[in-house]
Amino acid sequence: MVQITPTSRGDERKREILRAAAEVFRRRGLHAAGMRDIAAELGMAVGNLYYYFESKQALLAFVQEDALDGLIDLADGTRSGAERADRRLFRLLAGHVVLLNESVPGSLAHLEVEALKGKHGAQIRERRRTYETAVQQIIADGVEAGVFRPVDPKVASYAMLGAVNWTVKWFRQGGNKSAGEIGRECAELLVRGLLARGVEPDFPPPSRGAEA
Fold this sequence. Notes:
Elements: H1 9-28, H2 35-42, H3 46-52, H4 56-76, H5 85-103, H6 118-145, H7 153-165, H8 167-170, H9 179-192
Helix pairs in contact: 1-2, 2-3, 4-5, 4-6, 5-6, 5-7, 5-9, 6-7
């Protein structure tokens, strides 16, 4: 498994590389983009790029591990039984959008789990299942408590995660709305769709000085 240490200078350089890779992915598409294209974007010799990432597979694995580290931390923070399920799910989905669009360089690659093969792919898929299970548990808690309609937690989770993951395809920094604002709007639309008849939503207010 790719290990990430936030304070590592090497990992900070990797994130700089991923920011450039993200631009190349958007222009050329993830599958068409090669290591030479990314190196050219950086004005770097391709040999220097291989010092940080031994292959495109290693680069994609780093992006996905980075994203999943943050997402699983978000999920861990929603396990409190003191909050109702709709508030917990709202916080998780809104945070998911912010993390992918502001905190994880190159997060477009987060959608491309099938592009990872062998050991990298197996490890990433297992961690994704861990996160998906956490989302499904919140939904199941809400159904059991009567806050949510009786839905299949797995189907509902895949529909919701598909929506918030796809924001990396269309969100642009510097647009009319911030990632925080987009996250809150997505979370409200998605969670309201689960509420049982007659249940008023219990959503957290925007943080002071921020949108989410």
